[in-house]
Amino acid sequence: MKKIAVVLVLATLLLPVSLTAKKGASKHPFDFFNHEMHTTMFEGVVTCDLCHADPESYGDRSKVYRLGCHKCHKDPNGPIPVPKPCDTCHQDGWYPKPQSHKTDWLAKHQNYAKANPAECSQCHANKQFCLDCHMKRETVVKKMHRRNFKYFHSIEARANPRKCDSCHTVSYCQNCHAGNANSGR
Amino acid sequence: MKKYLISVCLLFLPGLSAVAADIQGYADLDNQFRKNQNSQWELPADAFLGGSFRQDSGFFAAETDMRFFRDLNQTSDDYDLYQAVLHVQPEAPLQLDFGRQFVSQGFAAAVMDGSKLTVGSSWPLELTVYSGELRSVETGDFNLLDDSLLTGATLRLTQLPQTSVTLNSSWRRDKIGETNWRQNDQVFVGLAASSHLNIVTHPDLYGVFEYDASGQVIDNGSAGVDLSPGKRVALNAEFNYYNTDRQTHRNTIAALFSRGRTLTGRLASTWTVIPKYLNFVQTYAFQQVTVLPGQREQAHILDASLELSFDTLGLSLNPGYYFTRSFGGQLHGAHVSVLEQFTDRWSTQASVDFSKYTKVTNDNDNALSLALGTGYEVVDDLNLSAGFEYNRNNEFDRDVRGLLKLSYFFKHSS
């Protein structure tokens, strides 16, 4: 119990220290966008509807067509040759999520991905992003499930058995339940 | 194993001669110190390595990701190769992918040793055909040769305004020489679509229909809607039907627990209570699982949490509650995680997870897990982290583990 107390005390002490830390406010990617330069220098190429596909997006930046920038800045076959560094817009770790990602995305993402896999790769260009969850075995630091998942997984497996198949094969169950258990590899 | 590593390295040689290209690479090393249930020390280490190369012209690209495992005390080891793929685009509407690659063409996501051809990414119609031998890293490693053969085709309409429609088909053959078509082969056809409507609440509609032609059963059907009724709320509702063909040789975990269809209804919402400071996130799912023919069991899965962030302080808090009830038992759990970003380079994270469960096997218990860690970016893109965790559960009265983590990301454009 003493060690638990030490952990809790340490964690508690860290919080007040954090109150002294300062961090600069992050900017939205559109804050780096030069509207005048795009509409005057590239008139006729960068048309309004390239970004403002939704009429409401003129007054609401959250409705701007997010892949409009990528038409030129990411597509190797775009209408004009332009610089393509991602961090021009995606600074300070800002990766603006589309509306569909905001609610329970993990549970439903397969449906969107099946309908349009190319849209995923507009932002997640490297398949490593998919492999990270779908295939990667993390035997030392397990981040895919809750920390106590091992001890109640039988309840969740019976609630939604199909979900296990998304990443595991039957042999994964057999490794422990059929007597081939190891210590957590 | 060496010949495979050499092969992987060779994949990148053509790229080294290129002038205008993006090269990325990463290395993550996770090392833990712990005692197992027999009080023996274990020092397991996972090393993840990967990289990608992409010519600016788009003609040639390559990607690879792999993992090495070793228990430094027990001298056991393991390795996985997740992908080693070449992408060649000789002409704009044509792309070829060779090697071990991630495939997600309308049905289950998988890793395949094979090739994929995509034609017409800039046309109104895009066609993708692929074929290869599937790999499942859990059942062995990249030397394993006896997984299924997968062949498929995808047709995608690319220029419908704010709408996506994809037709998919696949043929999965479990054993190449097997003659019993009914039990050995699975032929799927499917349709997946999504559309954004510019009407009130800005709904995104999506749906998937998959038919198992060999088993003559509807394998999967989903329909859902995402709504944004206001700036501060986002809603999702989804219905799902699933009924895999259980007469094939191929075992699934779903088939261990069910002998018929599974129905799911799910409602989820995200509420912005105080913009930039506080969000409330919840999801609830109702499941009906056919355990045996004529015997259906219901299940409930609930998850709710708060997301508090104080950007000026670099502080994020995430307390939450989770609940599951199924024919396997009942679970209540609570968790809290705290992340403090002291500076751009230094952060600390603490988390607590407590679970209390009752099982039909009368194996009733609770589990506690505490974790504390801190990370520092020593130089640009090189992070060093250390932490420890305390666990108490039905395996360990007291389990203390230490963790060291080193991660490096490399990016070069020429």
Structural description of this entry:
The complex is a heterodimer of chains A (185) and B (414). Chain A is mainly α and 185 residues long. Chain A contains 10 helices and no strands. Chain A has helices at residues 2-18, 35-41, 48-51, 68-73, 105-115, 117-123, 128-134, 149-159, 161-165, 170-177. The longest helix of chain A has 17 residues, at 2-18. Mean pLDDT of chain A is 73; it is low at 7-26. By secondary structure, chain B is mainly β. Helices cover 6% and strands 67% of the residues of chain B. Chain B has 3 helices and 23 strands. Chain B has helices at residues 2-16, 181-184, 253-257, and strands spanning 21-35, 41-42, 44-55, 60-71, 76-91, 94-103, 110-119, 125-135, 149-157, 163-173, 185-196, 204-212, 217-230, 233-242, 262-274, 278-292, 295-310, 315-326, 329-341, 346-359, 365-379, 382-392, 399-413. Chain B has a 22-stranded antiparallel β-barrel. In chain B, a hairpin with a 4-residue loop joins strand 3 and strand 4 (60-71). The two termini of chain B are 32 Å apart. The model of chain B has no long low-confidence stretch (mean pLDDT 88). Classes of the chains: A mainly alpha (185), B mainly beta (414).
Proportion of strand residues of chain A: under 5%
Q: How do the SSEs of chain A run, as a string of H and E?
A: HHHHHHHHHH
User: How many E-type strands of chain B?
Assistant: 23
- The number of distinct β-strands of chain A equals 0
